[in-house]
Amino acid sequence: MTLRLFGIRHLGPGSARSLVTALDEFKPDVLVIEGPPEAEALLSWVGDEELRPPVALFAYADGEPSNSAFWPFAVFSPEWQALTWAARCQVPVRFMDLPAAAVLATQAAQRQAAAEAEESSSLAESTEGRRDDAAEVAAELSDDPFALLAELAGIPDPERWWDEVVESSAAGDRFAAVAQMMTELRAEADSDPAASERRRETLLREAQMRMVLRKVRKEHEKVAVVCGAWHVPALADPMPAAKADADLLRGLPKLKCVLAWVPWTHSRLAAASGYGAGVTSPGWYHHLFTTPAEPIARWLTKVANVLRAKDLPVSSAHVIEACRLADTLAALRDRSLPGLAEVTEAVRSVLCEGDNTLSGFVQRELIVGEELGTVPEGVPLVPLEADLRATAKSLRLAFTEVPRELDLDLRKDFDRRRSALLHRLNICGLPW
User: For all residues of the chain together, what is the average pLDDT?
Assistant: First the structure.
């Protein structure tokens, strides 16, 4: 039996491109991916032309829709590329993360505990301040495993460090290097016994992953595992005893839940939205993945179009000079290609003439962006969304990622019904 562990970043275009190449070479019999096992029934829709990312697997507690969780995918998500690869090659897929039923039950319990602990928050803060240096390092590694490496490399932003070292690297088998790096980091983080309790959710997830993986390895000869890079050392051989994982998972609370595919947007993939695994530049990553040929020149052309739409005088000469500046900055910083930092500086200096307000337009409309995914008809939907989509279709109202004006003549019954829907949504706090 052959096992390959592919440690990835959940939203990484370089990881996604390398993963597809590695899967083509390895040709596994089965693909094991992070995700709730209940969602395996929805994987039959992957490969449908109308299921276009960004989309998300959405789970909510039956009878309590406010208790929900989501697993988002973009076109540049390694997991999405793995799923589409499996659909194309007719390779079975297994999800190995904690069940959605357990995730929702845990969330409900955490909210209740947080409410009960609110009165004693000052005591908790004073206790937090007494951690020793070793505990601080372990906690930092647990919260953001790449922050320490980025700091050692002299790069203040961990995301930029990962982008330069992994996503934009032209190295060969980056997965072996990532596995070795994560092994060293995990050894440091696990050295503090108190850190285990703080990472209880991670420990539970990894126990579930190993339980699924043991079963899959008995049924298949060549197994490929796609998981967050941090989990690779926990899934590598030798694994701990199955009984230890079973004991850890025993008694895990669960709630009855419903799952569906839902459209998502790039702004909801951004870290600023509160998504824990979010990135600062989903629009930029989408561009890198979908435009492998001359990405910098094409990106700067997009920037020029955005600024021209604001009635700003941006010429082809501006774009050419911005390309040259980005290339020069990359050479000075010993980079093979300009990254987002170099391109952004070139845009601000040349196209925006140093005006941060103008560069803010580029940040909102391109670097983050508002790409909107789609799901095909017939896919299980959240009841409220199903009702909204049916009503919107009957009123010929299209879902778009950008706002548009709608002139309504309230003397006409059709326009009155449109107006009524828009007012109902406003009352619900869901502006169209």
Answer: 85
